[in-house]
């Protein structure tokens, strides 16, 4: 009912508009690589905004490790 | 529950003040809470008196039989005397709002006070788990188990798109709030605390006082917690808070070291010993002055400057010097001036005896 009215507010508060976390009655989605990657990217942006470059570098490495793994899994073109 | 005691030594400190967890010299405790609502009832803010009563009874009935390691005791707050409600708040088992509101509501607590579930607070259920020290993974694992028990017993409101539905949009999504309570006298004394808190705020973390929302940072205690609950998975939220708190703890350690070197050392020693002198000699102590002095003395104990005192004594002093605990000890209602006298007496007694 309130979806339309609440969406902009949710976006303003959380910078996001949909859930990425556990769901009742389903196995934990935390291991899901997509969620992990999206979360890491958000944290990286925050770290850069906060000028916390130490944290940003470690996050960048983690993202590279994850995306690297995925590239490896793709069949060669 | 242990808050029925009437002698200072009989009081259990509760999980949050046990003082034994990792990084316990700086991190007092870790708290993980989830906000949940059940289908079929309006959000708490919109419930009429009768519906609220019905909801509280319904949920209380389920919480008594909840599948947890430790049985929960459900306490009806509507019938509970004000002093007892205030004691529950001082022990962090309920929020200030839950202690003072007049709507039907309750709280479920285990004996060790490591679990508390507020019923009909801002949300139908606010389930929280405490762990001594900086212990995010363990606290979250316990909260997840508790949450799973709630979900298998009750029809929890959930949307695929928005996650767990909550009264306030700031909790929607995971409904998860991870907070670590930190003692940061070094950063305060070195005037770096504002820099530290604004850095945390830039990465969407909230920094609040000892009693959460709206409370001041008395005694140099700060709570650091996540603000974002939507668009990030639980793991990410845990990692963000852990990374920021790790950074703040190491910052605090660096500053403490600097405060004990060179010319700064004498000033620091002076500050610690003056505070101790006040606590040991004063005959009138307000709670604010007590917290300020206890903070300095705690710093001294943690840095090995006062070897005849220990952290457990100070934790006991911290808890029991609060208004409701003082009045429970005195077994009577005390006016603020009387409390200040009693507080001074109690602190003198607690600091002169080694536990």
Overview in brief:
Chain A is mostly helical. Helix content of chain A is 65%, strand content 0%.
Tally of contiguous helical segments of chain A? 3
The main β sheet of chain A shows up as: none
Determine the mean pLDDT of chain B: 91
H-E string of chain A: HHH
Rg of chain B (C-alpha, Å): 21 Å
Binned, the helix content of chain A reads: 55-70%
Number of strands of chain A: 0
Q: State which percent range the strand residues of chain B make up.
A: 5-15%
Shape of chain B: globular
Architecture overview:
The complex is a heterodimer of chains A (77) and B (355). Helices cover 65% and strands 0% of the residues of chain A. Chain A is an all-alpha fold and 77 residues long. In chain A, helix 2 (33-49) packs antiparallel against helix 3 (53-73). The relative contact order of chain A is 0.09. Residues 73-77 of chain A have low confidence and may be disordered. Chain B has 355 residues and is an alpha+beta fold. Chain B has twelve helices and ten strands. In chain B, strands 2-3-4-5-1-8-10-9 form an eight-stranded antiparallel sheet, with helices on one face. Chain B has a two-stranded antiparallel sheet with strand order 6-7. In chain B, a hairpin with a 5-residue loop joins strand 3 and strand 4 (115-119). Chain B is globular and about 65 Å long. The mean pLDDT of chain B is 91. Chain A binds chain B through residues 6, 9-10, 13-25, 28-30, 32, 35-36, 38-40, 42-43, 46-47, 49-50, 52, 55, and chain B through 144, 151, 156, 158-164, 169-170, 172-174, 176, 199, 202-204, 227-236, 239-240, 243, 247.
Features:
heterodimer, A: 77 residues, mainly alpha, 65% helix, disordered C terminus, B: 355 residues, alpha+beta, 8-stranded antiparallel β-sheet, two-stranded antiparallel ribbon, 12 helices, 10 strands, 45% helix, globular
Secondary structure: elements and pairs:
The complex is a heterodimer of chains A (77) and B (355).
Chain A: H1 3-14, H2 33-49, H3 53-73
Helix pairs in contact in A: 2-3
Chain B: E1 27-36, H1 49-64, E2 73-76, H2 82-90, H3 96-100, E3 106-109, E4 115-119, E5 125-132, H4 136-153, E6 158-159, E7 163-164, E8 176-183, H5 185-189, H6 193-202, E9 205-208, E10 221-226, H7 234-259, H8 262-281, H9 287-302, H10 311-320, H11 323-330, H12 336-352
Antiparallel strand pairs in B: 1-5, 1-8, 2-3, 3-4, 4-5, 6-7, 8-10, 9-10
Helix pairs in contact in B: 2-11, 8-9, 9-10, 10-12, 11-12
């Amino acid at each position: 009912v309130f979806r339309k009215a609440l969406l902009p507010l949710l976006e303003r508060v959380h910078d996001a508009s949909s859930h990425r976390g556990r769901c009742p009655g389903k196995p934990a989605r935390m291991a899901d690589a997509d969620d992990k990657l999206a979360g890491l990217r958000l944290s990286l942006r925050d770290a850069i905004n906060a000028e916390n470059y130490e944290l940003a570098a470690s996050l960048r490495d983690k993202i590279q490790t994850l995306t690297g793994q995925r590239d490896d899994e793709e069949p060669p073109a | 529950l242990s808050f029925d005691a009437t002698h200072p030594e009989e009081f259990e400190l509760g999980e949050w003040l046990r003082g034994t967890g990792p990084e316990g010299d700086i991190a007092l405790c870790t708290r993980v809470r989830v906000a949940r609502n059940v289908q079929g009832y309006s959000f708490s803010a919109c419930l009429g008196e009768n519906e609220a009563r019905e909801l509280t009874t319904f949920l209380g009935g389920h919480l008594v039989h909840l599948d947890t390691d430790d049985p929960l005791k459900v306490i009806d707050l509507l019938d509970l005397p004000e002093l007892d409600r205030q004691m529950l708040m001082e022990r962090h088992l309920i929020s200030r709002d839950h202690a003072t509101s007049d709507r039907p509501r309750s709280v479920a607590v285990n004996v060790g006070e490591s679990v508390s579930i507020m019923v009909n607070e801002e949300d139908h259920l606010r389930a929280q788990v405490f762990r001594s020290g900086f212990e995010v993974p363990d606290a979250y694992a316990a909260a997840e188990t508790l949450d799973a028990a709630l979900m298998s017993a009750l029809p929890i409101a959930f949307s695929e798109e928005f996650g767990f539905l909550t009264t306030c949009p700031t909790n929607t999504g995971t409904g998860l709030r991870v907070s670590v309570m930190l003692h940061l006298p070094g950063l305060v004394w070195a005037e770096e605390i504002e820099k530290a808190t604004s850095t945390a705020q830039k990465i969407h973390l909230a920094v609040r006082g000892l009693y959460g929302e709206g409370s001041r940072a008395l005694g140099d205690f700060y709570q650091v917690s996540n603000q974002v609950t939507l668009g990030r998975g639980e793991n990410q939220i845990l990692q963000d808070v852990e990374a920021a708190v790790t950074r703040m703890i190491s910052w605090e350690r660096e500053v403490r070291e600097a405060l004990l070197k060179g010319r700064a050392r004498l000033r620091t020693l002076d500050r610690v010993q003056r505070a101790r002198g006040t606590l040991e000699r004063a005959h009138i102590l307000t709670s604010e002055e007590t917290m300020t002095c206890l903070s300095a003395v705690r710093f001294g104990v943690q840095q090995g400057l006062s070897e005849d005192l220990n952290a457990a004594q100070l934790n006991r002093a911290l808890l029991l010097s609060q208004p409701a605990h003082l009045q429970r000890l005195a077994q009577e209602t005390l006016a603020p001036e009387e409390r200040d006298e009693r507080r001074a007496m109690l602190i003198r007694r607690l600091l002169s005896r080694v536990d």
